[in-house]
Structures are given as structure tokens and as C-alpha cells.
Amino acid sequence: MYSNGDIFVGEVIGTAILILFGAGVCAAVNLNKSKANNAGWVVVSFGWGLGVMAGAYTANPLSGGHLNPAVTLGLAVADVTEWADVPVYVGAQMIGAIVGALLAWALYYAQFQVANKDPETAVPTLGVFATAPEVRHPAANLVTEIIATAALVTPLLFFSKNTGIAVGEFENGIYGSGINVLLVGLLVVGIGLSLGGPTGYAINPARDLGPRLVHTALPIPNKGTNDWGYAWVPVAGPLIGGVLGALVFNAAF
Q1: What is the reported pLDDT for 101?
Q2: Band of the pLDDT at 179, cuts 50, 70, 90?
Q3: Distance, CA of 209 to CA of 96 (rounded, Å)
Q4: Measured in whole angstroms, how far is the alpha carbon of residue 102 from the centre of its chain?
Q5: How many Cβ atoms are within 10 Å of 69's Cβ, its own excluded?
Q6: Distances (CA, A) of 134 to 22, 64, 138
């Protein structure tokens, strides 16, 4: 399959691109003095979906383009990814998520540092980097993330199976063919539009945890809370959902 070095490089670069696009569209929509301010949830959903597509296409030749610890775990449960490679994938994804969040901050530096400086007009900035529930109910929020992530991992595995390449023999990455990367990007758009309302659809532990760490460390004026009390939900929920999605796939085949 892939060497550890290729996995590491591919997942760092691909996940960084994913988070740059994703945090970038959240910054564009949420921050003051952005031309896309208040553009709405449809724009956010498409921004994240296209970020997944761009990151996965980039990483695919090197690592298969997982970009997500929940996807990596699900693929390991489905016997597509070697368990020994899981730590390399997850470590690289975390690093890539941190790099992508830093790049998004640098790109919107003036909005963060200048436009957010006045306490009277400043907006909380955690939503650019991490997720938060609209209704804070940890059990319900956890269930939302589990279902949404299972709705990502199960179709992703079936997309790959439909290429005719046997599980465990994916020669062109986890998606099997180039068109399936596009399909997964559109799948993420659909998840955002249909399932993202309650929690903001983390569906990816690295996507939430890495940027939340960056938000905590950055000297952003009037940035508000980092909400570490909620941070376990977008980590635990996607991991559980990734396993459940793989178990559905295993039961079918």
C-alpha cells in the first residue's frame, strides 16, 4: 500500500488544505469586514465539501486521502487500512489540521487582529476554528456526531466497493477511482446541509481538536471562549460513528 513517509506527507498536506478551506469559509462568513460576511450556511457547507475534495485529491496519490481519524479508524475496522499505519495517519492529520488553522488565521489576519479589536463590534472567533452545538445537550450532541460520521464512513466504503476493487486491494487510494473523491466531497456538502444544523458537523476529530488548540494559543483580540468543556464530543462522536459505519459495511459484505 503506502509507505509511512508517504502517508505522513500526504495526510499533513491534504488535511492542511482541508482545514484552510474549511476554516477559511467559516472566517469569510463569520468575521466582520469580510466580503462574504453573513453569506450563510449553504456557503459554509459547500466550502467544507470542496475543501474535502481538494485535500483528498491532493493526498490521494501518497496516502489515500483519509484526512480524518474517524475515516482512518473505520477503514482499519473494515480491513482496508493496516492497524500499524493508524498512528501515522492520525498524527499527520493532527499536524495538518494545526497547519491549516494557522494558514487560515494568517489569511484573515486583518479581520482577526484589526476588525475584531473593538469590543463593541467584535465577534467570538471559536466558530471559525471549531464546532459548537446550537442546543447544548451533550448526549444529544454526541448522538448527532455519531450518526453524521456514520453517514460519512458507510457511503465512503460503499463508493469504494462499487469500483469493483476488492476490499484490501485499493490500488488507487481509499476511493478506488478519481470520481469517488468528487463524490465524497459532495457527500460532505450533503451532510453539512442535512445533518449539520445541531452541532456544526465536526465528523472529524482532527478537524475540531487541532484548530481548537490553535484558537486557544493565538493572540486574537476579544476571541471569547475556547469551550474545552464541549471538546470531547467532536472527538468521541466521530470515532464511534466511524466504527459503526465500518461495521455496517462489514455486515453487508
Answers
A1: 98
A2: confident
A3: 11
A4: 15
A5: 25
A6: 19, 34, 11
pTM of the model: 0.94
Measure the CA–CA gap between 178 and 182, rounded to whole angstroms.
7
Closest CA to 211 of 195, 193, 223: 223
242, 74 in Cβ contact below 8 A? yes
**Contact (Cβ atoms closer than 8 angstroms) between residue 30 and residue 127:** yes
Q: Mapping DSSP to helix (H, G, I), strand (E, B) and coil, where does residue 78 land?
A: coil
Closest residue by Cα to residue 63 from 23, 102, 95: 95
Could you give the residue ranges of the DSSP H alpha helices within the chain? 4-30, 41-63, 69-77, 86-107, 109-110, 126-129, 138-161, 178-195, 205-217, 233-252
Opening angle at CA 94, ends 9 and 91, nearest 5: 65
Taking residue 126's Cβ as centre, other Cβ atoms within 10 Å add up to 21
Place of cell 471549531: 130
Instruction: Take residue 150 and report the three cell numbers written for it.
Output: 456514520
Q: Which of 69, 81, 100, 94 is nearest to 239 (CA)?
A: 69
pLDDT at res. 162: 54
Q: Residue 166 has what DSSP assignment? A: P
How many C-beta neighbours within 10 Å does residue 25 have? 23
Q: Which of 212, 203, 40, 64 is nearest to 126 (CA)?
A: 212
Q: Which amino acid is it at 52?
A: V
d(CA 233, CA 80): 26
